[in-house]
Specification:
The complex is a heterodimer of chains A (444) and B (234).
Chain A (H helix, E strand, L loop, with lengths): L1 H5 L1 H10 L4 E7 L5 E7 L3 H7 L1 E4 L13 E6 L5 E2 L9 E9 L10 H14 L3 E13 L18 H18 L4 E6 L5 E6 L2 E2 H21 L3 E3 L13 E9 L2 E2 L12 H21 L5 H4 L12 E2 L7 E2 L13 E3 L8 H17 L17 H6 L9 H9 L2 H27 L4 H7 L4
Parallel strand pairs in A: 1-6, 14-15
Antiparallel strand pairs in A: 1-2, 3-4, 4-6, 5-6, 7-9, 7-10, 7-11, 7-12, 8-9, 12-13, 12-16, 15-16
Helix pairs in contact in A: 4-9, 4-12, 5-6, 7-9, 7-11, 9-12, 11-12
Chain B lengths: L10 E7 L2 H13 L2 E6 L11 E7 L4 H14 L7 E5 L4 H6 L6 E4 L4 H14 L7 E4 L2 E4 L5 E3 L2 E3 L3 H12 L5 E2 H9 L8 H14 L6 E4 L3 E4 L8
Parallel strand pairs in B: 1-2, 1-3, 3-4, 4-5
Antiparallel strand pairs in B: 6-7, 7-8, 8-9, 10-12, 11-12
Helix pairs in contact in B: 5-6, 5-7
Classes of the chains: A alpha+beta (444), B alpha/beta (234).
Chain lengths: 444, 234
Amino acid sequence: MAAGERGAPFVLQAAEEHRIRFVRLWFTDVLGYLKSFAIPAEELPEALAEGVSFDGSSIDGFARVQEADMVARPDPTTFELLPWAPEDRRVARMFCDIYTPDGEPFAGDPRFVLRRALARAADLGFSFYVGPEIEFFLFKDAKTPEPLDEGSYFDLTPLDVGSDFRRRVITYLEALGIPVKDSHHEVAASQHEVDLRHADALTIADSVMTFRLVVKEVAQELGVYATFMPKPIQGAWGSGLHLHLSLFEGERNAFFDPTDEHYLSKTARSFMAGLLRHAREITAVTNQWVNSYKRLVPGFEAPVYVCWGIRNRSALVRVPLTKPGKESACRIEYRAPDPACNPYLAFAVILGAGLRGVENEYPLPLEASDDIYRMTDIERWGAGIEQLPESLPEAIAAMRGSGLVREVLGEHVFDWFLANKVAEWDEYKAYVTAFELQRYLPRL
Amino acid sequence: MLHEATRQLVGVAILASADTALAGPLIADLAVIGYAPIAVSLADVPDATAAAAVLLVAPSGSATEAVRFSQAVRRSGRFARTPIVWVVREEEVELLRTYEELYDDFVEVPYTRTGLEARLRQVRRRAGQGDSEVLQRGTLTLNLSTYQASVAGRSLDLTFMEYQLLRFLATHPRRVYTREAILRQVWGYDYYGGIRTVDVHVRRLRAKLGQHAYLIETVRSVGYRFVEEPTAAM
């Protein structure tokens, strides 16, 4: 990218000015884990010019055996100081794009998958904006989901931990150039939500990766454990990653139409229709773990049925009516994803599904009524309302048959992802759960 | 990267010459590559009141005068930090060997504009000018070679794109730019992020500018501009 190439001298100057000793180079594996390796500041000029070679064979979803060599090229526009490193040992980070030794973008790099999806949107004249609401839990440790608010561990200062925690998270995020819109305690005990200001999808995907690290970092500083597990406590609210989406066409919000009763343009309607029609196919990517499907159940404001609504908080696609008629605020909200997804891949398939609707001018189904949960299966079937996959294998099956997801992810990621998820399910299905022991052991 | 109309001023270039056929186009070219040209005669050593970035001497047609002029400049000590560049035609190349101590570098005629620009940049850098390319706008100071930015003496910790955006706007004070124009000029054509990116960066910049956030003014339904003083509307 043009701006990126010009950034190298800036990074070198900044590294010198802040006396940076190490720079962390970040990238993301196919499952959405943040990977990092450090290079000493002296190696920066070479790293910026040529990239840094590494062995990709140990990275999930990267190498086929014969092509283990990868090159990580740092993106200078993402250069930031890590605010938690001590003053006298400053550390900076840059996100990387992954290339093959031949200089081609590596097909297994999730950042490239999203870049490619954004380039396709740009061909149609659109840029894609995302504003995420990220939920997570704070627990005493990684072993048991014991809420801090109720447990005895923090009895002395039950309120302080949560608010101090969020304050510190926000301070770090702002220092890293990630503006926070809102933060609050969530419905469930020990659950928190932080909303980031919307920006272009690539920036937000990077921000979600940074956010998860910041939250884990602050938790460690305060001696607690933070988790993005979608449903850690049975019977309580799960953690979602609600995404506020909009398309811009130049200066214009392509979702906005001042003459429509809901201020939704034709583009917005067909984008929503695309999301709804392909929702089942993309769910394996937006909700990628066995545990993800324990969140997508009725009763906790998580979406279950494939429908849209204006205020209905259980709808899969919601049209928020915050500032009616204000063009810049016009957006739709996709509520299925959970914060343990790979944001690059999730944004790519969501954009792909929406654009498929725009390109083919899908008609938007009728708005779902509030009593959708009280309907019988037959009634819903009659009304043409589908249900999101109820389990990982159901989601895998829907994805396997999806030409859309194959195209958006590319063969490499598509095949690897499916194989990995099948393996995860194979392991899980043989597992005897606490539910079974409780229910069956005394009776059978 | 920027087109010529938006290039920023490098500094004053003094041209001492008796060769009008050479001086005319040379002055035009100096202006295009970002200098404010001043033409002087070879008769007297000019005042160095306005510090010149570079002093060009063209000996053609009056080599003796040019040599005498250069010697007087060196003796005067008025242009201690200003490099002297001789602009020589083919028939004067021999002078270069004889009077090596009178020039810091030379350009041969015919020259190309790009070559001239690069040569002058090189010679200024050797003269220690490269490190002091500073853009001062009211309380804002941008060091263009070290990427440092400060406002009212407080140093700003900017990301690369924040710096580029601030620099672009500050280089053209009071001029209003649409988001689209800013995106093209600062981010480049191959950026997919879209124009809202500009708003995002302006917001971050303003947060970092603190009480000096007024430096970047929103012009309703048009775009943004850089102002040195808070305006009544803010």
